[in-house]
Structure formats: C-alpha cells, structure tokens
Amino acid sequence: MAKNKYNKNCPFTENQVKYIDYKDIKLLRKYMSQYSKIVPRYYTGVNLKYQKALAVAIKRARNMALLPFVRRGRHNVGG
What we know:
Layout: H1 11-14, H2 25-29, H3 41-44, H4 48-63
C-alpha cells in the first residue's frame, strides 16, 4: 500500500506483468487522457520501465489504427 498520494505503487509490478500488449485497448485507454495523450508517470504511479513499454504499446496501437492519435472534438479550430 502506498504511504501517501505521491508514492503510488505500480499496478504492473503488483500484478507481475511481463509484457504490455498493444492489442489490449481497454488497458491502454486507462493510461491516456481524454484528448488521447499519454498520461505521465506522476499521475498514474507506473514505474519507468513500464511507462516506456506502455508508451511503445500505445504508439504501436496508434500506428495499427486501434487507437486515435487525437480526439476529434466538435469545435476544431483551424481545419
């Protein structure tokens, strides 16, 4: 258990995850903001090793068109 809100435990380390699959969209969406940006480590509590693997998996899923690059809103400016 984490001591305070700043010392969060890594969910991947706790569950002993060996590989973050880019096809697991449900998992990847938890680590993306509402605008489809990758959420930083200090919000999620993921350690560096898994944050890098998570970023690679999200980028692969974007290239395979499983995830959007950006969220298209109703009021897009300039385009």
